[in-house]
Automatic annotation (TrEMBL):
GO molecular function annotation: oxidoreductase activity
Keyword Membrane: no
EC number: 1.1.1.-
Family stated for the protein in its record: Belongs to the LDH2/MDH2 oxidoreductase family.
Keywords associated with the record: Oxidoreductase
Protein name: Putative oxidoreductase YjmC
InterPro entries assigned: Mal/L-sulf/L-lact_DH-like_ah (IPR043144), Mal/L-sulf/L-lact_DH-like_NADP (IPR043143), Mal/L-sulfo/L-lacto_DH-like_sf (IPR036111), Malate/L-lactate_DH-like (IPR003767)
Enzyme class: oxidoreductase
Amino acid sequence: MTVQAQSGSKLKANDRVAVPADRIVDLATRMFVASGCDGDVAHTVACHLAEADHCGVESHGLVRVLQYTREFRDGALDPSARPVIHSEAPNRLKIDAGGGIGIPAMALALREAAKAARAEGLAVASVIGAGHTGRLGAFAEEAAREGCMTITLGGGNRQTWRMVAPHGGRQALLPTNPYCIGIPGGYRGPVVLDIATSQIAGGWIYAARAAGINLPDGAVVDRDGMPTRKPADYFNGGAILPKGGPLGSGLALIAELVGEAMLGPVEKGEINWLVLALDCGQFRGPGTMQRAAEEILTEIRDCPPAQGVDRVMVPGERERDQMAGGDRTHLRLPEPIWQQILDMARDMGLEEKMT
């Protein structure tokens, strides 16, 4: 087995098992239903996780079945919760996830914010009380295809999620506080930047631990501030480093101020979220913008690649290429992760339906 996990790409684990996609989606759905979720919510979440794996974003893929099921069991998430939308003004929305899983809430927030932006020009939505919100890029891409630019950022629960050291420090004080920006692009589709403000997303560490592999260089320090590649060192008092040093650290701090100082303390869920949506048609017609975007993006793609790089890509392109060119009938999961999912399902009394 190779022993490295890379941020933004598939876990490099050679010991994989090909699982029919419909089988794992069905199993994950039944595990969530057995945990107390409504069937439609369970299926939506399972499909979202499978799509993340198809896109190559395994940190937000089916490895999360383990996390979500444990959180349902331990009471950290309310499996029966459904997001509720409150319209405070035609272009100002508040989504309350009620302490439930965050994927349906975030999908609702971006969909409704984009709808309001198309009517009003600009809209803002907050999301509170949400558990893990999945792959943000999926929601931003949908809004961009409707002609809207969206900016999503989350933060505000550092007391619970002390994961990332501030620039110059060695103690974990901040969450990974993600940002996602989506905008209509050229002829190949939207441009979607979906990042954690940390060197790697927290999900990569959990996925690497579950798969039994090491982390990339320069991502994590141990409790003494020394570089390490071992997931266990992170869980034993270590910290993730901020992406780009002061850049990621500053963005994380801004998101923390938005999430707590502006939106209020996190009472349920992981972190608070702010979503801004802008109708791009307020500035230029869709065709004119698309042609201009294509000219810019073509110049970037045509840049001669650096040594060891196949080609220059724009944000969101790798995921779309992976989705279009991959096997949609099967998912190749790291064998340890698949085995843990099976073991958890058996513990829930679901093994008789898995053959």
